[in-house]
Amino acid sequence: MLSPREIHYRVGAAVRGAFPGRHRSVRGSSGFEFRGHASLMDVPDARRLDLRASLLDPFEQWRVRVQSERRAIPVAMVADLSASMGFDGACPKLQVMADFVDSLSWSAWRNADSFSFIGADTQVRREFVLPPSRARGVAADISTALRQWTPEGTSAQGLLDAHRYLGRHRTLVFLLSDFLLPAAQLAQLLDSLSVHHVVPVALWDRRELSLTAQRGLVRLIDPESGRRRLLWWRPAVRARWAERQRAWRDEFLGVLRSRRLEPLVFEDGFDADAVTRYFHG
């Protein structure tokens, strides 16, 4: 069986993890990245004495080179499992999510980082809560369950409680949703995760958001409530639809950018290289 495609992610600031890993940190004294000098009394390691710095020290103390060690970070996926995520278009959203879980959990293991998963609709779904783990293949059951899941939740309100399942340490959080929710709720959700490094991941489908024929009778379905209605599709209604869609996208981007966030968008299936470009492009 082939391994999932690896994602090369990073966080901008130095991390404070307690476990060895691959990310820049501000901890340790015997790594490879020079951080500064300290007194030999504070860092009793004579192997790292810096004679030049000691001679220049105005207090005539022995100075030791302090070099940061690479550390691990917690990686988490917070996922919207409400009914709108069940749209079965060109590439089902839950299929994309499951592929992302496979790739991200594999990449976290490769980086010695922990991986966790929290899924929610109207509430956090206990069967879709995976505590942080560094074990290889830890997310296999979650991935399989997502591929078989039929979402029925009428809202994504449970995402507001996802932060309670994350640790106190700053975590790299991938927030997966179609973001078809009120702007106020999205703002509240992002604020609840503000202590973490958040990557909003929009799972959209071109068939779901594209316009149909110029005119005719069409059947509309609200994916969250399941309500159905017939609508006579004509140019004037089509124009209003397009305008509302533009306004929704502008509002969505406005909420993100007011918090200095940019979305990672998938419309044609999962692409591990696109995630890497998001961090390194």
Brief sketch in words of this structure:
The protein is α/β, with parallel strands linked by helices and 281 residues long. The chain has seven helices and eleven strands. Helices cover 28% and strands 25% of the residues.
Notes on the protein architecture:
The radius of gyration is 24 Å and the shape is elongated. It is an alpha/beta fold and 281 residues long. Strands 6-5-4-7-8-11 form a six-stranded mixed β-sheet, with helices on one face. A two-stranded antiparallel sheet has the order 2-3. Among the domains are: 28-68, no CATH class; 74-204 and 262-280, von Willebrand factor, type A domain (Rossmann fold). It has helices at 51-56, 93-110, 140-148, 183-192, 206-209, 235-257, 272-280, and strands at 20-23, 33-39, 63-68, 74-80, 114-120, 124-133, 172-177, 197-203, 216-221, 228-233, 264-266. It comes from Ideonella lacteola. Residues 62-249 form the DUF58 domain. This is DUF58 domain-containing protein.
